[in-house]
């Protein structure tokens, strides 16, 4: 309940949003900005010129609806970091060197963004977890910073537990030995080889430290998905303000870039795709997508293709990235493979984004093979689709554990080692493991039926959460009220 000066409390909040330059970070944060704008708050997104278009369609739709939402672009230091003009997003990178330069360039934007905000002070900053500097800057301005956590609370709990000096993984003799992560609500097992490397862990420690200084955390998800871990995080770790406001995909289904694909590059129209799916039995088709960041080698792509074919089940594959002939396998196999599966009506390969919401919402889809990016996992659960997990880097092995060991809505392919996104496929998973996982999730056995049942229960909870009076709807209301109370009472919130 907002108290303090009535005029202040009624005035719209002025909120600045700062994303991390990757489609998987930009899309959900832009949707959260839309949620604020739809409640009457005044929203500005700070970004760079080449990233404007990632926000633009959603923002233009908001303006058409009468929302107060704007974009302010800050010049990206391309020359200073040694990049051509226009390379400002990790989706533009094909190797670790380019990605490192993009990271460095975004770090250099801090000064100019701070100057803009000092000259045009907001009431609040909602910044991606990797924009760590915004916590100290918000304190300097005397305003709250909300962390946009692109993962889930379950992952944050695992990260903090692993950081303990008493964690069992520090005493293991082998990187491939399973150990139980201590102190959690469930006995979660993992190997040391599946943990992030030292450099990434250092960054995540800095993220955690900045989070401690923040006002709270907002997440694309719904509370019912990880209730025990929310309570654990609040009570055991002392973090009080956590707002799950999704699934954002259910609120803004038509704004997703995977819906707004170019018909010029589409191998089939949406109507043709629906007709193809209509011709398949329920729960008989596997959908495959590894997001915008993963750069699998040709060898790994070939193993995936062979595994899909060997499974005997029809499939849809959104293949965003095919490397040059980077290894002994090369990519000469792909045209023949595409032609063969088309001729035999076994599958469809999209060279780019597929209409993911349309696909996942079709009864023929029985499973979703994913890298375990959080957005993809939430989408699968929102539509009641079990998952086949093939994690690569970042938090993805942790998210895999949520799926396979807690929710039990999917199966692990058997990825064994953490690596960076641009080195994906360095430790390839075999075609045999791919085929086995597909069969396990699509076969009509008791285990598969159990996964489908649990996934559909999550779908029902997800849909209720975004309705008026649902948990995510109410969390958004509570977050806005807390921010207005902070402003009205000079930083004091009950």
Automatic annotation (TrEMBL):
InterPro entries: UDP_glucos_trans, UDP_glycos_trans_CS
Protein name: Glycosyltransferase
The keyword Glycoprotein is assigned to this record: no
Listed Gene3D superfamilies: Glycogen Phosphorylase B (3.40.50.2000)
EC number: 2.4.1.-
Top EC class of this enzyme: transferase
GO molecular function, one term: UDP-glucosyltransferase activity
Family indicated by similarity: Belongs to the UDP-glycosyltransferase family.
SUPFAM superfamilies linked: UDP-Glycosyltransferase/glycogen phosphorylase
One Pfam family recorded for the sequence: UDPGT
Organism lineage string: Eukaryota, Viridiplantae, Streptophyta, Embryophyta, Tracheophyta
The keyword Ubl conjugation belongs to this UniProt entry's keyword annotation: no
Keywords: Glycosyltransferase, Transferase
């Amino acid at each position: 309940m907002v108290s303090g000066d009535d005029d202040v409390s009624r005035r719209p909040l002025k909120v600045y949003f700062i994303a991390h330059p990757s489609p998987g970070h930009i899309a959900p944060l832009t949707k959260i900005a839309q949620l604020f704008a739809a409640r009457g708050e005044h929203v500005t997104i700070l970004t760079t010129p080449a990233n404007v278009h990632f926000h633009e369609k959603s923002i233009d739709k908001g303006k058409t609806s009468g929302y107060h939402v704007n974009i302010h672009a800050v010049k990206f230091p391309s020359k200073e970091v040694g990049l051509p003009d226009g390379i400002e997003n990790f989706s533009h990178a094909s190797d670790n060197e380019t990605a490192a330069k993009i990271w460095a360039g975004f770090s250099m934007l801090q000064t100019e963004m701070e100057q803009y905000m000092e000259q045009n002070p907001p009431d609040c900053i909602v910044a991606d977890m990797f924009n760590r500097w915004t916590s100290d800057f918000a304190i300097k301005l005397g305003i709250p910073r909300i962390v946009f956590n692109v993962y889930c609370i379950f992952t944050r709990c695992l990260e903090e537990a692993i950081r303990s000096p008493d964690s069992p993984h520090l005493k293991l003799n082998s990187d491939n030995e399973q150990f139980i992560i201590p102190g959690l609500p469930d006995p979660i097992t993992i190997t040391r080889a599946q943990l992030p490397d030292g450099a990434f862990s250092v960054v995540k420690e800095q993220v955690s430290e900045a989070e401690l200084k923040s006002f709270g955390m907002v997440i694309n998800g719904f509370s019912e998905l990880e209730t025990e871990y929310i309570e654990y995080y609040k009570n055991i770790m002392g973090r009080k303000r956590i707002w799950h406001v999704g699934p954002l995909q259910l609120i803004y289904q038509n704004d997703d870039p995977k819906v707004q694909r170019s018909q010029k590059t589409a191998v089939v129209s949406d109507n043709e795709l629906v007709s193809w799916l209509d011709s398949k039995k329920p729960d008989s088709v596997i959908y495959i997508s590894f997001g915008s960041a993963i750069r699998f080698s040709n060898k790994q792509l070939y193993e995936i293709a062979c595994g899909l074919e060997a499974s005997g089940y029809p499939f849809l594959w959104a293949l965003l990235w095919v490397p040059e002939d980077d290894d002994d396998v090369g990519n000469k196999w792909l045209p023949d493979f595409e032609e063969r599966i088309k001729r035999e009506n076994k599958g469809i390969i999209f060279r780019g984004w597929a209409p993911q919401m349309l696909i996942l919402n079709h009864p023929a889809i029985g499973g979703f093979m994913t890298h375990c990016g959080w957005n993809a996992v939430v989408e699968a659960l929102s539509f009641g689709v079990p998952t086949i997990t093939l994690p690569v880097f970042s938090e993805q092995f942790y998210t895999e554990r949520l799926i396979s060991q807690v929710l039990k809505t999917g199966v692990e392919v058997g990825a064994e080692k953490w690596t960076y996104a641009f080195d994906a496929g360095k430790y390839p998973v075999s075609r045999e493991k791919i085929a086995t996982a597909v069969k396990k999730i699509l076969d009509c056995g008791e285990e598969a039926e159990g996964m489908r049942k649990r996934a559909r229960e999550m779908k029902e909870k997800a849909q209720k959460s975004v309705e008026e009076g649902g948990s995510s709807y109410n969390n958004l209301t509570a977050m806005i009220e807390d921010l207005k109370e902070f402003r009205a009472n000079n930083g004091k919130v009950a």
